[in-house]
Write a structure and sequence with these properties.
single chain, 22-stranded antiparallel β-barrel, 5-stranded mixed β-sheet, globular
Length: 751
């Protein structure tokens, strides 16, 4: 393609100049690693066209290298939130490896697998269809791309906020070993290794292993033990067979096991029934439970790290994953097939009331399986037309058995059996209108079919099925103002699939469905290089209309129901979100590089109707449009500095410091007691400033091998407070806390 060729060469040259000062010529292996980092920083694959310069795509995307994650002692992809604008990632303790990911104010946190995520996590081309297991470890990443805004054309359903596109390293076909050990406070022990071997030509194998133990930073004073422990084991292998330059097969198999205990902190107060009954003398009604006055009305900062649960709870999660990717190139086109299977089993017991009395405990067993098949053709179709054309198939099965233990030992059991089949045809093409002007047009037609069975202890055993069809278009126009400046304007639509009420307890709710929600996003952006290519600066402004928004609604149940209320999902709201974003990278002088990002959001509900009395009309006290949208901080900001100092002819010292600031934001949609139009203030995550730093000494072990030792610290100011909160139907309220100061040392080698 002729379009942008000068700019691509300029960007490549600029990044070469920028990166060349970051590695010592005397350290051959370190130089090779930096060259790989250079490639990761300038190349993106998120448009499914193969490798493209990040400065050449009309798309808001932040590229995160493994070096950036490693420099801050990264644990999982949760750590990318401080490296990309308008991104929030909160862990969800109710599901193993679960994440509440928000991009540009579009978020979702439920671990119920009958609901769909709003941000897609894609690993080596495979879409993960549930929030559980999204926060994967980051050791073997080659690159992470954060694609902001709806990605409904290329990635399909449930990517209305964006996509986190992860690429792990490929087999090198050469003998090599990379290993690392990390020891930190709170009992952190982490061991990683990647082994490569092959025939240096046609055949290569990569084996990896990851094991992590963490004692947790909560103190359970009821049981006298630490709480919040977690463990993560991931082992696997990839076989690469490449008999010719235009044909390759990649086969991957892996096993993941998660464990630990899921702690929650009590933030119940006098508006919650548990405190009304048991926090004061002479509880009403009479009960045999001990009183819990010190477990109510607690401080929402330091008190959060002292917890009272009468049992720890337990996480048992295992997953097997298999994928086969085949790439065949002919002429200027590449045909790609990706077939993948993921199969997981989990059981989680948890004390949700967060107190020392047995008030509300759950035991949830879930089985999940997904099969995906993607077939696409990408490349240059003519001299002036390039793009991608493809087909996608998604099939998942999900079963849930859940038991809730209530005061006095009473039990309530329910279950779900759920199946989804989704088909999609998509295309996205670039048309070179001139050497500098390019038009991109794409679209995806999706068909979702779901069936569902819900059975509850009160005798409900009903089924439901439904289907939805949606077309999600995209169009953009970009123009090379000069070799160093690209400007673009775009429109994109995304949709999140409809579904059923996975927590329904009445036949009315089981038989109800909710429709897809739609996000239309308009974006203006510019991508530039400056200082002769030593720096890049990218900006984007966006305006998003969010229609038929799916929200959890607590509503009255029909007369004769076993409970007076239940939580259902409805297309209850619409919203408008607008914002600005900026990404910066610049080498100020030799061996000293600064990266930064900034984001601003303005997110408000246009309408939000909660039909409390089920009469179908908006009555006084049913307008929730003045509540805050979840995980929409007004500002996100980060700046990091990297400086590399030669120590000797065979060693260097790399210094890294980062400051990231996020303004306060709401984490719950539940109304404040006595104020239906305001979200519960206990759900506000306070504004935080995260200061992190690391120092890495890297040295030669020989002509082709290096070793390093790193000391690091995260949240050095030890900022504390609410991480996320959930009030439960006026009964009790629990929360998770911001991770306190963590520090450690890592040592590794590579040859």
């Amino acid at each position: 393609m002729k379009h942008g060729s000068n700019r691509i060469r300029a960007a490549l040259a600029a990044t070469t100049i920028l990166t060349s000062g970051l590695a010592m010529p005397q350290i051959a292996a370190a130089q090779d690693a930096d060259e790989a980092e250079q490639s990761a920083e300038i190349v993106v694959t998120g448009r499914l066209r193969g490798n493209e310069s990040v400065q050449d795509v009309p798309l808001a995307v932040t590229v995160v290298s493994p070096e950036q994650l490693g420099a801050q002692g990264a644990l999982t992809i949760e750590d990318i939130e401080t490296l990309a604008p308008n991104v929030v990632i909160d862990p969800v303790g109710a599901g193993p490896g679960g994440g509440a990911i928000s991009i540009r104010g579009v978020s979702f946190q439920d671990i119920e697998k009958s609901f769909e995520p709003t941000v897609g996590v894609v690993i080596d081309g495979v879409f993960i269809g549930t929030n559980t297991g999204q926060l994967t470890n980051a050791f073997d990443f080659e690159q992470v791309e954060v694609l902001r805004g709806p990605q409904g054309t290329l990635f399909g359903r449930n990517t209305i906020g964006g996509v986190i596109n992860i690429r792990r390293s490929r087999p090198t076909k050469e003998m090599g070993l990379k290993a690392e050990v990390t020891i930190g406070n709170y009992g952190r022990q982490e061991y990683n290794a990647v082994l490569n071997f092959g025939d240096s030509d046609v055949f290569g194998v990569k084996l990896w292993g990851y094991d992590r133990e963490f004692d947790g930073y909560y103190d359970n004073v009821t049981l006298g033990v630490d709480a919040g422990a977690n463990s993560n084991t991931n082992v696997g292998g990839t076989i690469l067979y490449e008999p010719s330059a235009n044909f390759e097969i990649l086969l991957t198999a892996e096993h993941t096991k998660l464990g630990g205990d899921p702690p929650v902190a009590s933030v119940s107060n006098g508006t919650d029934l548990i405190c009304v009954l048991f926090a004061n003398p002479n509880p009403m009604p009479p009960a045999t439970f001990n009183l819990i006055p010190d477990q109510c009305n607690r401080d929402l900062e330091d008190d959060l790290y002292t917890v009272f649960s009468n049992f720890l709870g337990n996480i048992q999660y295992s997953e097997e994953a298999y994928s086969a990717q085949i790439n065949y190139s002919f002429g200027d086109l590449t045909l790609t097939s990706i077939t993948a299977l993921r199969d997981s089993n989990e059981r989680q017991t948890q004390d949700f009331d967060a107190t020392s009395i047995p008030f509300f405990q759950t035991d949830r067993t879930q089985f999940y399986k997904q099969l995906t098949q993607e077939l696409r053709l990408a490349g240059d179709f003519t001299e002036s037309i390039s793009g991608v054309l493809g087909f996608y198939y998604f099939d998942n099965e999900y079963q849930l058995d859940s038991t809730t233990i209530l005061p006095g030992g009473a039990q309530s059991s329910n279950g779900t059996d759920h199946n989804t089949k989704s088909y999609a045809f998509f295309g996205d093409f670039d048309f070179d209108l001139s050497d500098r002007l390019r038009l991109s047009i794409g679209g995806r037609y999706s068909i979702d079919k779901k069936n569902y069975r819900r059975f509850v202890v009160n005798g409900i055993d009903l089924t439901n099925d439904d289907s939805w069809k949606e077309f999600t278009p995209r169009i953009s126009l970009d123009y090379d103002v000069s070799d160093d400046l690209l400007v673009y304007a775009s429109f994109a639509r995304g949709y999140r699939s409809g579904g059923f009420n996975g927590r329904a307890i009445t036949s009315t709710a089981v038989e109800a469905t909710f429709d897809p929600e739609i996000v239309d996003s308009f974006e203006l952006g510019a991508k530039s290089t400056f200082l002769g290519g030593a720096g890049t600066f990218n900006v984007a402004a966006f305006y998003t209309k969010y229609d038929d928004k799916q929200e959890e609604v607590v509503q009255a149940t029909p007369p004769g129901s076993p409970n007076p209320q239940e939580t259902v999902t409805q297309n209850a709201a619409s919203a408008t979100i607008m914002g600005l974003e900026a990404d910066l990278r610049v080498e100020l002088f030799e061996n000293f590089t600064v990266t930064g990002s900034a984001g601003w959001l303005d997110a408000e509900y246009d309408d939000y109707f909660v039909d409390l009395n089920l009469n179908g009309s908006l009555d006084p006290g049913e307008d929730a449009s003045t509540r805050e949208m979840r995980r929409t901080p007004d500002f996100t900001f980060s700046v990091a500095a990297d400086y590399k100092v030669p120590v000797s002819n065979s060693s260097e010292l790399a210094l890294n410091a980062r400051v990231a600031s996020t303004s306060s934001y709401q984490t719950t949609i539940v109304p404040a007691p006595g104020d239906f139009g305001t979200s519960d203030p206990r759900g506000i995550r306070p504004a935080t400033t995260d200061v992190s730093a690391a120092a890495t000494l890297r040295f030669d072990l020989g002509t082709t091998s290096t070793a390093y030792i790193r000391v690091f610290g995260r949240n050095l100011l030890d900022e504390r407070g609410i991480g996320s909160t959930l009030p439960v139907a006026g009964l009790f309220t629990f929360a998770g806390a911001i991770a306190p100061r963590q520090y450690g040392v890592a040592a590794g080698f590579e040859f």
